[in-house]
Design goal:
The structure holds two protein chains of two kinds.
Chain A lengths: L33 E4 L4 H17 L1 H15 L8 H21 L4 H25 L7 H6 L5 H29 L10 H25 L3 H15 L6 H6 L5 H4 L2 H13 L6 H25 L3 H4 L1
Helix pairs in contact in A: 1-12, 2-6, 3-4, 3-6, 4-6, 4-7, 4-8, 4-11, 6-7, 7-11, 7-12, 11-12
Chain B lengths: L2 E12 L3 H4 L1 H9 L3 H6 L3 E13 L3 E5 L6 H8 L7 E7 L2 E4 L12 H11 L4 H15 L14 H13 L5 E4 L8 H17 L2 E5 L3 H7 L2 E6 L2 E6 L1 H8 L2 H14 L1
Parallel strand pairs in B: 3-7, 3-8, 5-6, 6-7
Antiparallel strand pairs in B: 1-2, 1-4, 8-9
Helix pairs in contact in B: 5-6, 6-7, 7-8, 9-11
Classes of the chains: A mainly alpha, B alpha/beta.
């Protein structure tokens, strides 16, 4: 029998100063014994995988601090610190925007806000995908020294990139203010849209992280897939440009990245609710959740052996 | 009441050489219908074979055996890091595992930041995090260094930090690998003192060591591991008599007596 509720629970009972003034009462709760068995049956595996994710939720302050330290480390000792994120996005958007508006015969005041939102959102997707492939291999020291829910490392990738996104939102706000772009009434859908992004990011991190740990050629493969996807997805260019030239919409209609982008980009740029995009995004997300669930349930106990 | 039961535990490490790490090879093997055979014939190292024992409050278990006998793997499995291929482990009590000096620390982060991460893992409040930081700073004698990245520390300082961090939390079940007993002489005395009080406090101790005198002093039960199997299980005196050449046993016996 697997005790699904508490495979990580015993950590909570450690008490450094049991009689101290703020000895956590939670520690006193009688933890049930932890059973680690060679789980053969599907139900046991499923229960352990679910416990892994709830264990991660309980360790949320740790996930948050790990992500914060990641960002801080990246810019430690630099003059602007994490503001470099904002600055480099601003420079890139400015340079590319002015050139491509001419190349595509677009109006700068319409194209620049479009490009800013697209690049910032795409940056999140592609960075999560590429960092996800190494999320477990880079945390090998931690995984091999303490029993910790594996999904902590996947959630860390997502949180870290949410922090990066937070810095880049400043660029979007400035560009919107300069060009007078106003989000539409459909902005209420930004919240569910963003939640879907977080869930997708977490699932993709788990999945790619497990594959990346088992097969060492996954990271470069994902890198090139994301690069191709960048050019095939309407990020730099607008789907309406396809229609103008009489090209088929195949890169748009069934493109999961387009659907994901559009559910956030549309309302931000003042367009109405795009139900077709929502359907495609939800369909692909459901598929991703199912596949991730199956892989995680199966591969979770093997992960430490792969590192 | 702490209890730790290991029942028929086996652990095997798959050997991933360049070939089986490759996605291409796996996909082509699957396409050619060879995958089934491949996975059955996959090369693996049997690290533990059908190991069983039960520990209760008051037990002080030692592991002895040659390098590669499975001592560290068994400790890691008991800590819940490697889930066994067969068998089961039941842990009833708060566990601390002191397995390697790095303790999963991030070398780029400062000492204080690493302590904070460890504290958050244990679910500590902000006040207790500060207490832990002070406690570690005073014990490890690293005061100003705690604001510097761990990679700038000497290896001895890393051991001191890891040790202080891990031992600031008193567990019911303590799993220890022998690296703890390395370090400079003045720190070693301090460490030994702290460890001894911690060992007295812990309900169950499991220690892996090559030092017979330490095993004689600290343990009341000894398991001799050989090629991942239990070769002998008994009192430290019995097992060491069988394990060591007679003159080495006498030497260790005298050393242990002298210290006690």
């Amino acid at each position: 029998m697997v005790d699904a509720a508490s495979p990580f629970r015993y950590r909570q009972r450690m008490d450094m100063f049991p009689s101290g003034p703020d000895a956590a009462p939670a520690d006193a709760a009688p933890a049930r014994p932890v059973v680690i068995a060679a789980s053969r049956s599907g139900r046991e595996r499923l229960a352990l995988a679910a416990a892994d994710v709830t264990g991660m939720a309980r360790l949320w302050p740790l996930v948050w601090t790990l992500s914060l330290f990641d960002i801080r480390l990246r810019y430690r000792g630099s003059l602007l610190g994490p503001l470099w994120l904002t600055l480099s996005t601003a420079i890139m958007v400015g340079a590319i925007g002015l050139l491509y508006a001419r190349l595509f015969h677009q109006n700068v005041s319409g194209y620049l806000p479009f490009l800013t939102v697209s690049l910032v959102l795409w940056n999140f997707i592609s960075t999560v995908a590429s960092e996800a492939t190494t999320c477990f291999t880079q945390a090998d020291a931690m995984i091999r020294s303490i029993r910790m829910p594996h999904s902590v490392h996947a959630a860390r990738v997502v949180m870290r990139n949410v922090l990066v996104l937070g810095h880049n939102v400043i660029v979007i706000a400035v560009v919107f203010a300069l060009f007078g772009t106003a989000p539409s009434f459909a902005s209420f859908s930004l919240l569910p849209g963003f939640l879907l992004w977080l869930a997708d990011g977490f699932a993709a991190s788990l999945l790619l992280g497990l594959f990346g740990a088992r097969f060492r050629d996954i990271p470069p493969i994902i890198g090139s897939i994301m690069q191709i996807a960048f050019y095939l997805t309407p990020i730099m260019w607008n789907p309406s440009m396809l229609t103008h030239r009489g090209l088929s919409q195949v890169f748009v209609s069934y493109n999961p990245f387009y659907a994901l982008l559009e559910i956030l980009r549309g309302p931000l740029l003042g367009q109405g609710l795009d139900l077709a995009a929502w359907h495609v995004a939800c369909g692909y997300s459901l598929g991703l959740f199912v596949i991730t669930g199956l892989v995680f349930v199966r591969a979770r106990p093997r992960l430490p052996y792969w590192l | 009441m702490a209890q730790l039961a290991v029942e028929n535990v086996s652990v095997a490490f798959p050997l991933y050489h360049a070939e089986s790490r490759s996605l291409k090879k796996t996909v082509f093997a699957a396409a050619a219908g060879r995958l089934g055979e491949d996975s059955r014939h996959r090369l693996s190292v049997q690290a533990l074979r059908d190991v069983s024992f039960t520990l209760r409050t008051g037990d002080r278990l030692g592991f002895i055996g040659a390098n590669g006998a499975g001592k560290t793997t068994l400790l890691r499995t008991m800590a819940g890091i490697y889930e066994p291929v067969a068998g089961r482990i039941t842990i009833d009590g708060a566990v601390t595992a002191l397995l390697d000096p790095g303790q999963g620390m991030n070398m780029e982060l400062t000492g204080n930041e690493n302590i904070r991460l460890r504290a958050l893992f244990n679910g500590y409040s902000e006040a207790r995090i500060r207490q832990l930081q002070e406690d570690v700073a005073s014990f490890a004698g690293l005061d100003q260094f705690l604001a510097l990245p761990v990679r700038t520390y000497s290896s001895g300082m890393v051991v001191r930090l890891g040790f202080a961090m891990a031992t600031a939390i008193s567990p019911q079940i303590l799993l220890m690998d022998e690296w703890l007993l390395a370090g400079d002489a003045s720190f070693l005395d301090k460490a030994r003192h702290r460890l001894e009080s911690m060992v007295r406090g812990a309900e169950i101790l499991v220690l892996s060591s090559h030092r017979p005198d330490i095993l004689l002093q600290w343990c009341n039960r000894l398991i001799w591991l050989e090629n991942g199997e239990v070769r002998a299980d008994g009192t430290p005196e019995e097992v060491l008599r069988a394990y060591l050449p007679p003159e080495q046993f006498d030497h260790a016996w005298d050393a242990a007596r002298k210290h006690a």
